[in-house]
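Risk register update: the risk of archive-format incompatibility is retired. Evidence:
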Amino acid sequence: MKILVAVKQVAALDEDFEIRADEKDVDEDFLIYDLNEWDDFSLEEAMKIKEASTGEVEVVVVSVGPDRVDESLRKCLAKGADRAIRVWDDAIEGSDAIAIGKVLAAVVRKEAPDMVFAGVQSSDQAYGSTGISTAAYLDWPHAAVVADLQYSPGSSSAVIRRELEGGMLQEVEISCPAVLTIQLGINKPRYASLRGIKLAAAKPIEEWSLGDIGLTPGDVGADSSMSRVRRMYVPAKGRAQMIEGTVAEQAARLIEIIKEFKGE
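Archived output:
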């Protein structure tokens, strides 16, 4: 039995930053990278299933990204993942969440797992669509915002509890194999042990190209994406003005400001 966990290395801003010359992203020199928080819970859920099973369960983590992503994949290996796969090709640059879902779906077809887990969203872009698009390309059942999971390895179905709006929960049974996007708080992610870190450092990370998963450069990238970044910029800062005086004087001054703004 195999569980494939899709993970992402997310970017956080340093205190000071600059926008790239093409105005489409922040200059990479000003970004701090780490494993996406939601994906930590996804991995832990897979590890819980593995450790509770009496049979053999393989946990495989996969990420789409350049060489720097290896650091996050090794964190997953240190926490108990059996294998790590990184998919990259320069043509993938500029792909949106839907195109990344196409890449992940191709990996799933090659690996043939029994279940696929992903985080609900990433902390940097928060699209919340990568896992769902993966399921769509596979034509697999899927459920989003999973807050509880009851699943036995090899079962043809799983019972999940998912979060809805307004603080409500929905309990449903889903056919397997399926794609589940995991919510924060479903479990308590473990820390990597020193032994785990040492073992992870010696494990290989499989590097796959588009050709390895049956895709071409024309299947990915900005031109094959449903959305693209046109421009990224820091909005102009406004100026606050304290209006003093009596209530009547404040109201009169406010009317003046509105007229000035309207050009009257």
